[in-house]
Amino acid sequence: MNVYGLLGKNIGYSFSRNYFSEKFTKEKLPCEYRNFDIATIEKLKPLLENTTIQGLNVTIPYKQEVIPYLDAMDPIAQEIGAVNVIKFDKKKGLVGYNSDYYGFTESLRPLLNKKIKKALILGTGGASKAIAYALDKLHIKYTFVSRNPDFNELSYNDLDEDVIRNFKLIINCTPLGTHPNVENHPDIPYEYIEEHHVLYDLIYNPEETTFMKKGKEQGAKTINGLKMLILQADKSWEIWN
Questions:
Q1: Quick one: which of 2, 57, 97, 220 is 20 to 30 A from 157 by CA?
Q2: Using one digit for the tens of pLDDT, what is the confidence trace for 85-102?
Q3: Model's pTM, two decimal places?
């Protein structure tokens, strides 16, 4: 029995386990998908010695913390600086990949319009790095928004009418609004959003976040992270096999 799984923290809600378990049953594959819920990255070591594991997906908060444990990285994952797929390769050892950027790019494409030249990325964690890489490839300029802004980043207090009108794509890479805290949302001036805006929320539970609702009320197009998850999961399977 080949074992695959999701590495993360507090991942009981996980989409991946249900998705892959259904896939394995439907396609009659001799595989099992488990959640590897660890409190700290140091607990990873025993897992890596498990010879039945063929591959892992990686989620918050370990997409960057996992890198020192790898033997090699795919060039794209290296450039992004975050890993969400690990392949247990018999020759190369543990190899890190990133399929988030692919899932995001392909799910975003149908929503793009000619007005979208610049994007705001809310949050600066591991997921935001893959988003930035994807936007580069789509030739969309971007600026990070952070509670503790670094050089070249904006704070939430900087987001005025001018900024919102200029940045027609807004991507929430923070966990704000995830079930059960569904009332939470990024603190941006939603009143300046209009019909040419696209609000993309990486969250998929709930199906429609408060961030999305507030955008929709202003006429914006909105999308959650489910399509991205499905696409990146399929890409993971390709990588492992």
A1: 220
A2: 999 999 999 999 999 999
A3: 0.92
